[in-house]
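ARCHIVE CARD
Drawer: 12
Card no.: 0347
Subject: one protein chain, sequence and derived structure
Cross-reference: see card 0346
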Amino acid sequence: MDIALYLHAMTGLLVIIDPIGSALIFNSLTANSDQKHRNLMAVKSVIISGITLILFGNYGEALFLQLGININSLRISGGLLLFYTAFIMITQELKFANTGKNSDISVFPMSIPLLAGPGTLTLAILLFSQNTEGHDSILSVSAAIVSVLIITLVAMVASKYLKKMIGKTGDEILRRFLGVILAALAIQFIYEGIRNISM
């Protein structure tokens, strides 16, 4: 396994998925539900997101190639999309309404758009396209996705306690800080795309 790529993927995914922020949104969506239902929704959300990210990350580039889209064009457009996501993280507040007791929130909004939204899917394709060690890169990025989603699962299961500890102000500060890091990552993707497309 390529440790450098694993850590790089972990950093990017942690920033864009934001396990703590996602857990706090999860808590607000399941405030009226019992703990068994909350746990079920957390597990389903993570499994759906993991399958989506790994499959789309692995086969998304091939799909774009079939459509005649160069991977460097994807890096540039993906970087712009990630930068837009970062801009929203820094300047706006994410809100989702509670849909009622024991409703299924695993697909929407937890998996899409929160855990496996457009920004995360784009990042997954860009990470899987870095074929530094062939199949080793697939293992590294897949391991990073699973690691981040396990952290997110733990945060969601413990979201009631997390809400008490961090509070709204702490979440606001963390989300904006992560937004700045994501913006830097987005610029890096744009830079690499422009550099490689002009070679």
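Annotation on reverse: The chain has a mean pLDDT of 85. The first helix runs from residue 3 to 17.
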